Recover the amino acids of this structure.
């Protein structure tokens, strides 16, 4: 769900409604919330804190860093170690946390060695500021390389019924016991709208499209995280668990 302004930039039109939506999501069973420092920037993290802090013991907040913003719709990889450290510290402050349970490298910066980018996150992990490290929008080869520099527990790639280009990454993640978190899983509602791809697919199989969020839909950072789909769909074939936890419902905020 998008709780920022147009282009994932600035405040939403109705911040109070965004707060109500976040609280209601948790009331309905959401226990894993994924966001990023670049959403707003920082607007999403600040709204999450306003709505939900102090956090319930079983609520996991994940965030990401590594994309800089200059305006609506503008996203630029920035993986300099000092920048990643700065953004992590700011995320801790904006979220009101002493440690981030899952911190993902939002994009690999091709201008900076991956070892340096993940190396800084490992240092932050050793300092107790990050619990788990993940990566986002990577290929299988990039994921394999990332695992040589840090203990990677999750990968977050674009994946939904209309775009399955990350299927090989999903298969690798499942085989290796890594969490797979799809971003844009229902294309901000476009896939699930009446007459849309999910609605059409469901009618073909005599099923009803799920509401969003749907309890028990997915979890992270272990194994795989998916939006639900009708029976026999490849999107319904796997489930996941967070280490030492019950299955969780996930919400991604932008």
């Amino acid at each position: 769900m998008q709780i920022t302004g147009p282009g994932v930039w600035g405040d939403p039109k109705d911040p109070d409604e965004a707060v109500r939506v976040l609280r209601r999501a948790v009331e309905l069973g959401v226990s894993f919330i994924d966001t990023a420092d670049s959403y707003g920037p920082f607007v999403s993290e600040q709204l999450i804190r306003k709505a939900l802090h102090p956090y319930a013991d079983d609520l996991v907040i994940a965030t990401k860093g590594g994309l800089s913003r200059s305006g609506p719709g503008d996203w630029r990889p920035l993986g300099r170690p000092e920048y990643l450290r700065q953004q992590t510290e700011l995320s801790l402050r904006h979220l009101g946390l002493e440690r981030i349970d899952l911190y993902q490298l939002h994009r690999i910066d091709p201008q900076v060695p991956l070892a340096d980018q993940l190396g800084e996150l490992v240092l932050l992990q050793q300092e107790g500021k990050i619990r788990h490290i993940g990566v986002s929008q990577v290929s299988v080869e990039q994921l394999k390389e990332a695992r040589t520099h840090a203990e990677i527990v999750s990968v977050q790639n674009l994946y939904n019924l209309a775009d399955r280009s990350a299927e090989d990454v999903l298969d690798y993640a499942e085989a290796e016991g890594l969490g797979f978190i799809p971003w844009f899983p229902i294309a901000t509602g476009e896939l699930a709208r009446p007459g849309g791809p999910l609605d059409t697919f469901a009618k073909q199989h005599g099923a009803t499209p799920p509401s969003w969020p749907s309890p028990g839909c997915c979890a992270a950072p272990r194994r795989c995280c998916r939006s639900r789909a009708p029976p026999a769909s490849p999107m319904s074939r796997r489930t996941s668990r967070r280490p030492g936890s019950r299955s969780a419902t996930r919400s991604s905020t932008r």
